[in-house]
UniProtKB/TrEMBL annotation:
Annotated Pfam families: Sybindin
GO biological process, one term: endoplasmic reticulum to Golgi vesicle-mediated transport
Entry's family note: Belongs to the TRAPP small subunits family. TRAPPC4 subfamily.
Species: Carlito syrichta (Philippine tarsier)
Gene coding for it: TRAPPC4
A Gene Ontology cellular-component term: Golgi apparatus
Protein name (record): Trafficking protein particle complex subunit
UniProt KW keywords: Endoplasmic reticulum, ER-Golgi transport, Golgi apparatus, Transport
Complexes and interactors: Part of the multisubunit transport protein particle (TRAPP) complex.
Length: 126
């Protein structure tokens, strides 16, 4: 399962935070000799887009792009809201509607995404 990206959008529709968390697998370099035997496969990959908005912060939208098989997206959105309120809103140097530049927000969001990808869900004590 994978969570590809997290976006935070303000009231005016401006992007105030973006995190691309998915790194594609690196493949080893392959060498071929002539003639080449090629096999082409068609891959139909889909992405789940989840939107979250909490009542405490009017107008702020949290967007998560994830694999459709990823479980616990609603819990992840609640956790992102909690991280936003704890580390961005309580930061005395952060102004509403401005881009989020807070190291603790970054660190805790990355940790939450790792937990979500490994466990699939968040429990009440996370």
């Amino acid at each position: 399962m994978a969570i590809f990206s997290v976006y935070v959008v303000n009231k005016a529709g401006g992007l105030i935070y973006q995190l691309d968390s998915y790194a594609p697998r690196s493949e080893a370099e392959k060498t071929f000799s002539y003639p080449l035997d090629l096999l082409l496969k068609l891959h139909d990959e889909r992405v789940l887009v989840a939107f979250g908005q909490r009542d405490g912060i009017r107008g702020i939208k949290f967007v998560v792009l994830a694999d459709p098989r990823q479980a616990g997206i609603d819990s992840l959105l609640r956790k992102i809201y909690e991280i936003y309120s704890d580390y961005a809103l309580k930061n005395p140097f952060y102004s509403l509607e401005m881009p989020i530049r807070c190291e603790l927000f970054d660190q805790n969001l990355k940790l939450a995404l790792e937990v979500a990808e490994k466990a699939g869900t968040f429990g009440p004590g996370s």
